[in-house]
C-alpha cells in the first residue's frame, strides 16, 4: 500500500515537468522555486563550502534551470517577498533593455512602406538618434564582436531626439556595427582627417590597407579593431570637432573626444584582463598616448609610456624580425611569426613608435622604460616602401650598427627615420645626464669642465656636429619647401631636435661670466638655430599647429637659455641686448601660444615658461617686456600675453629647469644651471668678444666652430 502523506507536508504535487531539470535528472524532490529551487541551492552551498581543486572554479550560482514553457505559475509555496523580488528584476531588465536599444511606441516610418513582420524593427518602432559628429547611441542586445562581454556604463546619455533612422542606418546597426562609433560616413571623414593632419602616430598604420578595410563588413576579421577607431576619433577631434571648450589653464574639454577616450581605455582594460587582440589594442594605446601628450596630460602620458613599453616587450617586438623562436611555444605568450612584409613592418613601426614615445616623455631627466642595449629590432623601412607594400629587404641598420647616427643609406632613409634617429640621440643625452647624476655625489657646477668627464666629449661631438652634418643632401633643408605647401614635420623636427639635445647636455655648465665656456657657446648656438627655424616657419603660410607636439618642448628649452641670458644682461646693465633677448623670448612664447590654440601642450608650456620669467620681469627696466617684438594681433595682444598670469596655476610638465631662479644653488637640480649673480666679468661679454683659441679641454679646433659675439647684430629679430 502507498504511504500516507505526512501531515507536515502540505505542499501540493507539482505538475508534470514543473520541477527543475537537475532535480528531475537526479530524481530528487523539488519545490520549483525560481530562479533556483531549494534542493539545488543547498547542493550549491555545500559545493562552495570547500575550496575548489587547482584549475577548477566553482559555478557562480546554482546550476538550476527549467523547461522554457511559458505560462507556468510560480510554485505556491514560494515566499511572497522572493516573488516580488523576481518580478521587480524582470521589470528592471525589460526597462533597461528598452532604454538601451531605444525602443518606443511610434507610428510607422511611412504609410507607403511594405507592412513589416511582427518581429521586425519597424514594427517595434526602433528609433536611433544620430548626430553630425556623434555616434548613434544605441546598444543592441547582441552587440558587435568587439564590444561583447563588457558593460559600457560610462557612455554618454541618450539624445533626447527621437527621429526615425534610415534603412541604411538600420542595416548598419543590425549587421554588427559598433554602436559607440560614429556613422560610417562620419567615421571615414575622421579617419581621413587623422591621416592628413595628425603629426604623431600615423606612421604606425598601413594607410592604404587601413582605408580599404573600412569598407568591409563590420564582422569581417580584417575590419579595423574598434579600439583603434575610437583612438583615431579622439585624435582627429582636435581638427574637426566643434564641441570644444578651452579653459584658462589650457585644458581642452571635448565631449566627443572624451567619449572615445573612455571607449579606448575600456578596450585596454579588457585586454589587460584577457589578452584578447593584444597587438591591435597596443596600437590603439599608442595612438591614445600621443593624444594625451598633445593635451599635456602628463600623468596619463607617463603611465601609458610605461604600460605600452611593458606590453611590447613580452610580445618580443624588441627582437630582430619582431619575433624570437626561443620560448615561442609558451602558452598564451608571444605573437606568432609575422605573416608577410606588411605585418612585419607594422610590428617594427609599432615598436619604434613605442620607443620614441618613451624617449620623448623621459627628456626631463627620467629613467627610460626600455634600455637602448635591449633593443635589437631593425629600423623600419621608408614610409613610401611600407605603403607601397614593396617587400623590400629589412633595413640593415639597428642601434648596434656601426656609425648608425652618421650613416644614412639612401634606400633606407626618409624624414621619419632621421627624426627617429634624432630622438634616439636625445635619449642618449638623457641617459648620460641621468646616470651621471646618480653616480656623482654633487650636482654639476658651472665652474667645472664637463669635457673631462668620461664619454662627454664623444657625445658632444655626435650631438652638436656629426649628426646634422651627416644628413644626405636631399634632407638638408627645413622641410618647408614641400610640394603644394605641405609641411614635412618629421624633417623639421629632425633638424631642430639635436639642438635641443645640445642644450640639455650643456645646460648644467652654462657660465656667462666665462667667455671661454664651451657649454655656454653650445647652448647659445643651439638656441639661435632653433630661433632661426622658428622664424623661417613664420615666414611661410604653413600652419604651426601641424608640427609635432615635441616642438613645444624644443621651444621651451631654447627659451630657458634665453631667460638666463636675459638675466645676465640685466645684471650687467646692457639694455640694448636685453631688449633683443626679450624679443626672442616673446617670439618663442608666441609660437607656443599659437600651437596651443590647437593643442593644449603649447599653452601649458608657455605658462610654465612664465613661471621661470618671474624674476627677470621684476628685475628688468623695460617698460613692457612681455610685448617686445610681439606681433600686434588683436586676439592675442590683449589676452594671450596677459601680465596677470603667474606661476601659481601652472600645470608642470616633466621637463628640466622648471625651478625659479630664487632657488638656492645647493637645491638646484643638475638640469638647471646656477646663474651668475655678479657682474664683475661683464667686459668678457663685450660687443665684439670672441672665444679664446685656447680652451680648457683643447684648442678651438676641438670645438669645431667659434661662437659669434653676443651683440645686437648677431640676433636676427625676424618679426
From TrEMBL:
> Mind telling me which PANTHER family this protein's record contains?
ZN(2)-C6 FUNGAL-TYPE DOMAIN-CONTAINING PROTEIN, ZN(II)2CYS6 TRANSCRIPTION FACTOR (EUROFUNG)-RELATED
Q: Where in the cell is it found?
A: Nucleus
What residue stretches are annotated with the Zn(2)-C6 fungal-type domain? 19-66
What protein is this chain from? Zn(2)-C6 fungal-type domain-containing protein
Q: What broad taxonomic lineage does this protein's source fall under?
A: Eukaryota, Fungi, Dikarya, Basidiomycota, Agaricomycotina
Pfam assignment, any one = Fungal_trans
Q: What is its main location?
A: nucleus
Region Disordered: which residues?
A: 136-164, 698-719
Please give the GO cellular component terms listed in this UniProt entry: nucleus
Q: Provide a GO biological process annotation.
A: DNA-templated transcription
GO terms, molecular function: DNA binding; DNA-binding transcription factor activity, RNA polymerase II-specific; zinc ion binding
Q: Which UniProt keywords apply?
A: Metal-binding, Nucleus, Transcription, Transcription regulation
Q: Which SMART domains match?
A: GAL4
Q: Where is the composition biased (Polar residues)?
A: 699-719
Amino acid at each position: 500500500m502507498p504511504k500516507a502523506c505526512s501531515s507536515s507536508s502540505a505542499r501540493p504535487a507539482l505538475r508534470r515537468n514543473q520541477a527543475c531539470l537537475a532535480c528531475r535528472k537526479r530524481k530528487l524532490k523539488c519545490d520549483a522555486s525560481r530562479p533556483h529551487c531549494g534542493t539545488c541551492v543547498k547542493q550549491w552551498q555545500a559545493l562552495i563550502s570547500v575550496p575548489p581543486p587547482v584549475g577548477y572554479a566553482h559555478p557562480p550560482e546554482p546550476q538550476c534551470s527549467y523547461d522554457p514553457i511559458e505560462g507556468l505559475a510560480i510554485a505556491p509555496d514560494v515566499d511572497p517577498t522572493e516573488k516580488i523580488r523576481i518580478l521587480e528584476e524582470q521589470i528592471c531588465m525589460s526597462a533597461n533593455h528598452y532604454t538601451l536599444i531605444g525602443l518606443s511606441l511610434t507610428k510607422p516610418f511611412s504609410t507607403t512602406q511594405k507592412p513589416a513582420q511582427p518581429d521586425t524593427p519597424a514594427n517595434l518602432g526602433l528609433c536611433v538618434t544620430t548626430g553630425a559628429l556623434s555616434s548613434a547611441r544605441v546598444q543592441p542586445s547582441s552587440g558587435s564582436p568587439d564590444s561583447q562581454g563588457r558593460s559600457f556604463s560610462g557612455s554618454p546619455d541618450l539624445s533626447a531626439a527621437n527621429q526615425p533612422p534610415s534603412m541604411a542606418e538600420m542595416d548598419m546597426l543590425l549587421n554588427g556595427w559598433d554602436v559607440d562609433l560614429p556613422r560610417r560616413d562620419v567615421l571615414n571623414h575622421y579617419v581621413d582627417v587623422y591621416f592628413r593632419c595628425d603629426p604623431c602616430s600615423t606612421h604606425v598604420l598601413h594607410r592604404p590597407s587601413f582605408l580599404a578595410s573600412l569598407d568591409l563588413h563590420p564582422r569581417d576579421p580584417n575590419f579595423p579593431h574598434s579600439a583603434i577607431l575610437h583612438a583615431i576619433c579622439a585624435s582627429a577631434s582636435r581638427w574637426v570637432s566643434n564641441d570644444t571648450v578651452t579653459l584658462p589653464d589650457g585644458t581642452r574639454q571635448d565631449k566627443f573626444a572624451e567619449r572615445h577616450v573612455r571607449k579606448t581605455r575600456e578596450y585596454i582594460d579588457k585586454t589587460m584582463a584577457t589578452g584578447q587582440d593584444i597587438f591591435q589594442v597596443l596600437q590603439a594605446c599608442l595612438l591614445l598616448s600621443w593624444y594625451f601628450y598633445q593635451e599635456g596630460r602628463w600623468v596619463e602620458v607617463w603611465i601609458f609610456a610605461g604600460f605600452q613599453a611593458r606590453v611590447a616587450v613580452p610580445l618580443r617586438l624588441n627582437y630582430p624580425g619582431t619575433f624570437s623562436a626561443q620560448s615561442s611555444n609558451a602558452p598564451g605568450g608571444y605573437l606568432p611569426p609575422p605573416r608577410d612584409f606588411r605585418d612585419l613592418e607594422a610590428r617594427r613601426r609599432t615598436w619604434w613608435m613605442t620607443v620614441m614615445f618613451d624617449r620623448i616623455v623621459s627628456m626631463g631627466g627620467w629613467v627610460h622604460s626600455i634600455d637602448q642595449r635591449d633593443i635589437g629590432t631593425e629600423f623600419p623601412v621608408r614610409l613610401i616602401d611600407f605603403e607601397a607594400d614593396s617587400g623590400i629587404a629589412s633595413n640593415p641598420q639597428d642601434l648596434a650598427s656601426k656609425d648608425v647616427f652618421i650613416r644614412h643609406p639612401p634606400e633606407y632613409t626618409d624624414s621619419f627615420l632621421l627624426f627617429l634617429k634624432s630622438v634616439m640621440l636625445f635619449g642618449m643625452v638623457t641617459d648620460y645626464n641621468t646616470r651621471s647624476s646618480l653616480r656623482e655625489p654633487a650636482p654639476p657646477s658651472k665652474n667645472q669642465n664637463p669635457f673631462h668627464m668620461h664619454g662627454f666629449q664623444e657625445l658632444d661631438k655626435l650631438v652638436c656636429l656629426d649628426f646634422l652634418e651627416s644628413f644626405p643632401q636631399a634632407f638638408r633643408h627645413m622641410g618647408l619647401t614641400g610640394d603644394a605647401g605641405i609641411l614635412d614635420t618629421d624633417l623639421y623636427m629632425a633638424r631642430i631636435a639635436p639642438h635641443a639635445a645640445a642644450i640639455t647636455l650643456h645646460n648644467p655648465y652654462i657660465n656667462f661670466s666665462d667667455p671661454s665656456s664651451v657649454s655656454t657657446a653650445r647652448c647659445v648656438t643651439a638656441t639661435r638655430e632653433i630661433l632661426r627655424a622658428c622664424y623661417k616657419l613664420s615666414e611661410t603660410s604653413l600652419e604651426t599647429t601641424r608640427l609635432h607636439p615635441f616642438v613645444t618642448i624644443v621651444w621651451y628649452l631654447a627659451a630657458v637659455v634665453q631667460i638666463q641670458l636675459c638675466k645676465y644682461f640685466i645684471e650687467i646693465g646692457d639694455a640694448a641686448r636685453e631688449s633683443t633677448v626679450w624679443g626672442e623670448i616673446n617670439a618663442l612664447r608666441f609660437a607656443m601660444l599659437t600651437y596651443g590654440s590647437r593643442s593644449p601642450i603649447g599653452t601649458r608650456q608657455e605658462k610654465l615658461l612664465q613661471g621661470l620669467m618671474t624674476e627677470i620681469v621684476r628685475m628688468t627696466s623695460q617698460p613692457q617686456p612681455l610685448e617686445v617684438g610681439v606681433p600686434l594681433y588683436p586676439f592675442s595682444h590683449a589676452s594671450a600675453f596677459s601680465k596677470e598670469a603667474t606661476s601659481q596655476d601652472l600645470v608642470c610638465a616633466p621637463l628640466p629647469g622648471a625651478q625659479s631662479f630664487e632657488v638656492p644653488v645647493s637645491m638646484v637640480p643638475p638640469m638647471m644651471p646656477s646663474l651668475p649673480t655678479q657682474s664683475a666679468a661683464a667686459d668678457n661679454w663685450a660687443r665684439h668678444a670672441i672665444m679664446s683659441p685656447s680652451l680648457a679641454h683643447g684648442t678651438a679646433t676641438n670645438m669645431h666652430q667659434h661662437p659669434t659675439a653676443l651683440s645686437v647684430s648677431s640676433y636676427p629679430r625676424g618679426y
